[in-house]
Amino acid sequence: MQIESTTLWDFLRQNYGDKPHGNNRYNSVTPAMIIWNLLQRYTKEGDLVVDPMCGSGTTIDVAKELNRKVIGYDLNIVRPDVIKNDSRRIPLQDNSVDFVFIDSPYSNNIKYSNDEKCIGKISCESEEFYNELEKTASEIARILKPDKVMGWVIADQWIKRKFTPAGFLVWQRLEKYFEPMDIVCLTRHNQTSNTGIWHDRARQYNFYLRGFKYLFIMKKPEALSLK
């Protein structure tokens, strides 16, 4: 779909709302349009949406604007409507949530919080990283209603001449609890790696500039057993 530049803001406002969502200065903030699209597709007004790693609160803002009930948790509290909680133990009843969105750490590349329990302090080169994220996945599966959907955002890592396919390693864990629906590549804009020096390094050391994240869209099966 082509959009005339003079009507771009009208298009975005009509489709993604005209209010600010979250905080663009927050580390690894999720673009609002991603959450907006997911909620439009997989929820309806009045549904309960949960974000176990809420960060700057983008999910809260979008869900409220779309008249969804919403609960946002995080270990690093930056606003009063986010509840301090560890994603590996979500204080909600089984089969009580209509949709879950999570934009998880994909390594220890960013400082997410000062809390020692933060999964973002663990390198994705360690098996412990995936073990801890699987605990979060298990909790999401527990609280999600059968046949309902969750969206999980994550990326791979290339650092110190070593590639770690964190996205696919997490996907393998998620398949224990959810049925695959789709994998979407989310293009990153304004990347610090999109400069001449990084293009030269990529050619010199033979690596690709990582310009996307994965969005895994998965559904909780009707007959999931967590025992």
- Outline type: globular
Sheet of most strands: 7 strands, mixed
* Major sheet: arrangement of strands: 3-2-1-4-5-9-8
| Parts with pLDDT < 50 across at least 5 consecutive residues | 1-9
Query: Gyration radius, to the nearest Å?
Result: 18 Å
Level of helix content?
A: 25-40%
Description of the structure:
With 227 residues, the chain is an alpha/beta fold. The protein has a single domain (29-219), classed as Rossmann fold, CATH 3.40.50. The chain has six helices and nine strands; from the N terminus they run ααβαβββαβββαβαβ. The protein has helices at 8-16, 32-42, 58-65, 127-143, 166-174, 196-205, and strands spanning 48-51, 69-74, 82-84, 97-103, 144-154, 157-159, 162-164, 179-187, 212-219. The chain has a seven-stranded mixed beta sheet, sandwiched between helices. It has a two-stranded antiparallel ribbon with strand order 6-7. α2 (32-42) crosses α3 and α4 (127-143) crosses α5. The longest helix is centred in the middle third of the chain and has 17 residues, at 127-143. The N and C termini lie far apart (47 Å).
Short description:
The protein is an alpha/beta fold and 227 residues long.
Chain-wise SSE layout:
Layout: H1 8-16, H2 32-42, E1 48-51, H3 58-65, E2 69-74, E3 82-84, E4 97-103, H4 127-143, E5 144-154, E6 157-159, E7 162-164, H5 166-174, E8 179-187, H6 196-205, E9 212-219
Parallel strand pairs: 1-2, 1-4, 2-3, 4-5
Antiparallel strand pairs: 5-9, 6-7, 8-9
Helix pairs in contact: 2-3, 4-5
